[in-house]
Design brief:
Strand content: 25-35%
Number of strands: 9
InterPro entries: Mucin_vWF_Thrombospondin_sf, VWF_type-D
GO cellular component, one term: extracellular matrix
Low-confidence stretches: none
Largest sheet: 5 strands, antiparallel
Mean pLDDT: 85
Pfam families: VWD (PF00094)
Keywords: Disulfide bond, Glycoprotein
Distance between the termini: 24 Å
Number of domains: 2
Protein name: VWFD domain-containing protein
Length: about 130
């Protein structure tokens, strides 16, 4: 029996704002953002470059998602050494790239990513996969 596909949902928090992207459906703090229409409110922007959904924050962080598995996180240089979570510590030191929420270092990328995600039943990435 083939397991059902994983849900294609990305939850992001920027300061006090929460963005949820499910396929091409995007909401900011629970309010729907019309597909394909640029959104900008209080320093948070949503755009649809090609097949991707991109969210940029005045906090200096940008997240782009291909609506499947690929996610890119970009932080402004001013944030160097001041980030945490999936951005890592942004110190250019590979030894601290995979710091988990408990402060320990994950041995592999899948363990690092799984440590930071919001738990949802059946969505763990197999740790042998990356």
């Amino acid at each position: 029996m083939v397991p059902p596909p994983l849900p294609q949902v990305l939850h992001m928090t920027f300061g006090t704002d929460t963005v949820v992207a499910e396929g091409r459906n995007v909401s900011v703090n629970g309010a729907a953002v019309p597909e394909g229409r640029p959104y900008l409110h209080k320093g948070l922007g949503v755009t649809w470059p090609g097949d991707w959904v991109a969210v940029a924050s005045s906090l200096g962080v940008r997240v782009a998602w291909d609506r499947h598995l690929a996610v890119t996180v970009t932080a402004e240089p001013e944030l160097r050494g001041g980030t945490w979570g999936l951005c890592g510590t942004y110190t250019d030191d590979p030894a601290d790239d995979f710091v988990r929420p408990d402060g320990d270092i994950a041995a592999i990328a899948a363990a690092f990513g799984n440590a930071w995600k919001v738990p949802a039943a059946g969505t763990e990435v197999p740790e042998g996969a990356g």
